[in-house]
Amino acid sequence: MFPGWISLRVKDPKEVAQWYSQHLGLEVLGGRHIGGGETQALGSPKEKGPAMILLPGQPLDHPERLQMHFAVPDVDDVYERMKQEGVRFDEPPADMPWGWRHAYTRDPAGHTVEICSRCPTQTSKNRPVASHPACLAKQESEARERT
């Protein structure tokens, strides 16, 4: 069973919520005042699904060990947009052996944030065809199915 939400303690819930809203399109769905500050609940009002609750409090000692993965339609497009918005990434998107393309960054609280999409299945004027053997094999299989 997949959890309905994840709750994270951060020093500044509003700052972290603004980052997720600006860069990943999550919306602040609400919040409430609790001892020490204001919570922020994020998600998509259009889709039922997981949500993120940001609570004021002491953050994790090693926030980078917490990884959140966001599936996006085209990781390269989102990566380029986020870079233009000032987000720094560990490295450019890369094809992974399991058939997905990933790029990693950190939110203002230091949590690892991954944007990912399935490996591209066709050439694009913005990037070459997937280079990883698993992605190439997937492309070849899909091409055979189309013929």
Describe this structure in words.
The protein is of the alpha+beta class. The protein has 2 domains: 1-59, 2,3-Dihydroxybiphenyl 1,2-Dioxygenase, domain 1; 61-147, Signal recognition particle alu RNA binding heterodimer, srp9/1. Helices cover 24% and strands 31% of the residues. The protein has 3 helices and 10 strands. It has helices at 13-24, 75-84, 133-146, and strands at 5-10, 27-30, 33-34, 37-38, 40-43, 51-56, 67-71, 94-95, 100-106, 112-118.
- Quote the CATH topology of the largest domain: Signal recognition particle alu RNA binding heterodimer, srp9/1
Overall shape: elongated
Distance between the termini: 38 Å
Strand content: 25-35%
The biggest beta sheet reads: 4 strands, mixed
Average pLDDT number = 84
| Percentage of residues in helical conformation | 10-25%
- CATH class of the largest domain, named Alpha Beta
Q: How large, in whole angstroms, is the Cα Rg?
A: 18 Å
The string of secondary-structure elements, in order, is: EHEEEEEEHEEEH
Counting copies of identical and different chains, the oligomeric state is single chain
> Which class of secondary structure composition applies to the elements?
alpha+beta
Number of domains: 2
The CATH architecture name of the largest domain reads 2-Layer Sandwich
Number of E-state strands: 10
Q: List low-pLDDT spans.
A: none
Biggest sheet: strand arrangement: 1-6-5-2
Number of helices, where a helix is a run of at least 4 consecutive DSSP H or I residues? 3
